[in-house]
Design a protein that fits this description.
The chain is α/β, with parallel strands linked by helices. The chain is built from 11 helices and 10 strands. 48% of the residues lie in helices and 12% in strands.
Length: 312
């Protein structure tokens, strides 16, 4: 016998939200999702509607769901979609195509940074460097910097990323195990600008699971990438996610419990953990803990490697 939606009491339920104990029809699920995003933004005072919000959109389901949900939650909010083309054969063109399709559907302004056109490097070039087995790490550094750069160029006040509940809770748990306290603090829902002139960074999906993002995209007919990154297979992040999933298998509240406990812990960590003194990078002028930032070091490393290959 079909289960009736707990909200509208008329349509058949197709989605079950374990932590909320709700069986919902597609329409009520979409409403639930958008309200939850909006509630998270309000609870953490992420932004107000008079600001301009840039969304770091990769082409994946999480950032695609975020852009679409923000568009519906705040119809008067000025949204700007920001995308980085990493120069990965087939994959990057596919991702950019999905981003362009979504931006056009929502009539949202889109800005694309093409890594090869702008810097004459591709993420795959890191295979020739010491980052051969840690391309995801190098890629993360590259993307974070470029999204900051795009945010400055487009003059957005807030930069929103698609970090979901599974991402954040898993990374928090991992950082706790290895004592990476500075990285744990960086996982806050709202991060103030690193320096004057930079955007506030927020995570509106911090309470929403990866599966909910997938369902939202499917029910709302949101286009997202259909192929995986060739460099993400077998990474430590994938293994960490698998271990974390095993821990939460029989407890639908586990991820929320981890998130809530660590959010309570972060203010204490901020009081005892010394803040890193930031200076301007001598190459790009962005905030850095040293004379040259991690982004510029990696770009220089790749370019030197490419130049040496050409000489040989």
């Amino acid at each position: 016998m079909p289960i009736t939606c707990r909200k509208c009491r008329s349509a058949n339920a197709e989605v079950y939200i374990p932590y909320a104990r709700l069986s919902l029809c597609p329409k009520c699920f979409l409403d639930f999702y958008v309200r939850r995003v909006k509630r998270t933004i309000e609870d953490f005072s992420m932004f107000t509607e008079d600001l301009t919000v840039g969304v770091a959109i990769s082409g994946g389901k999480d950032s695609a769901a975020l852009l679409h949900a923000l568009h519906h939650a705040y119809p008067n909010l000025r949204l700007v979609a920001l995308h980085v083309n990493l120069g990965i054969p087939k994959y990057s063109a596919h991702c950019q195509g999905k981003v362009e399709e979504l931006a056009k559907m929502l009539d949202v302004e889109l800005h694309v940074f093409n890594l090869y056109k702008e810097l004459k490097i591709r993420i795959g070039d890191f295979e020739k460097t010491i980052f051969k087995k840690k391309i995801c790490s190098a890629c993360g550094t590259i993307k974070r910097h470029i999204f900051e750069e795009l945010a400055r160029k487009t003059k957005v006040d807030v930069l929103a990323t698609g970090h979901n509940l599974d991402d954040v809770a898993g990374i928090m748990f991992n950082n706790f195990l290895y004592g990476h306290w500075d990285q744990l603090i960086r996982l806050k829902p709202v991060l103030p600008p690193l320096m004057e002139g930079f955007a506030v960074k927020v995570k509106p999906l911090i309470r929403i699971s990866e599966n909910e993002n997938l369902l939202y995209c499917l029910y709302a007919d949101v286009s997202f990438r259909e192929i995986g990154c060739p460099y993400s297979k077998g990474t430590s992040a994938k293994k960490r996610t698998k271990d974390f999933n095993n821990l939460s298998k029989n407890n639908p509240y586990f991820r929320h419990q981890v998130l809530n406990r660590f959010l309570e812990l972060i203010p204490m960590l901020e009081n005892i953990h010394p803040k890193t003194v930031l200076v301007k990078c001598q190459v790009c002028g962005f905030p850095s803990s040293g004379s040259i930032c991690a982004f510029c070091k990696r770009v220089l490393l790749v370019k030197n490697t490419i130049d040496n290959d050409l000489v040989v």
